[in-house]
Every structure is written in C-alpha cells, then in structure tokens.
Amino acid sequence: MPEQPYLYLKIDSDYSHLALNVATGFATIAQFLLDRGIRPTGKPMTLMINPPRDQFRMRIGYWVSRDDLDAAEGQIYAGVMPATRSICHQFDSFYSEIPSVYTGMVEYCRKHGLRRGREVWQFYQSHPHGVPQERLKADCHHALLS
Questions:
Q1: Radius of gyration of the chain (CA)
Q2: Parallel, antiparallel, or unpaired: how do β-strands 136-144 and 85-93 relate?
Q3: How many other β-carbons are positioned within 10 Å of the β-carbon of residue 54?
C-alpha cells in the first residue's frame, strides 16, 4: 500500500453498536468534506490499531490530497497512512462477520510465517451508510512487517 493522506473522525464503540456508529461516522465525515468542497481520492475507510475483541477504537475517514489535510478541525483529524505491505481479503457479507475475516488473516499469517503489524483497515466498495449491512462489500487489510 502506498503512503496515503486522509481525514478522519475518531469513534469508540462496543460491538453491538458498531454498524450504527460506523454508518453515523461516515455520514459525519462525508458532510464535513462536502461542506468544504473536498473530493476524496479513495473509497471510505476505517483504520484500527491493535483491534480489541469487545471495544472498538477506530478512525473513520477518506483518503484526500495532501493539500486537504489543513482543513482538519474540531472532531475531524488529519493523518497519513505510511506505505506498508499488507495481506488483503475481499469481504462480501454481514458487517458482523468482519471480525472472523481478521481472525482468518491472523491464522493465515501464522501458517505462512508472516509477521503482522498493528494496523488493520477496511476500504468499502459499498458505502456502509448507504447499503443494508448484509450487502456490505469491503477490502479488509492487515499490515505486514518487513
């Protein structure tokens, strides 16, 4: 994955409210971008560092141009994803199934001797705010160490 600047909103959520909180978060960041005339350079994304099992702390956002990072204010933050290698799984199911995808990716890494980084992220092919959760499509990534 190449280095990517992004604008994001932080959310904390327990698992039972995760789909709602992610959808609401995307609506918030999308409105922020729209109000400022910022065009995303990529699909909606989430980023988690050391994802927990019961409480999710994540960043919800969009890739943007480096010039747009200065627009960050209030509850919207600027970040840059460093260039990294990753393992990827294309996901097409209920949002509640995503944790099992990452469990499978961890098992794959163990089996093949790959060292995992701390970051996991998702790029949504269908917008979490605009489709029923059973029709969610996303590319799920787990960072790999060199």
A1: 15
A2: antiparallel
A3: 7
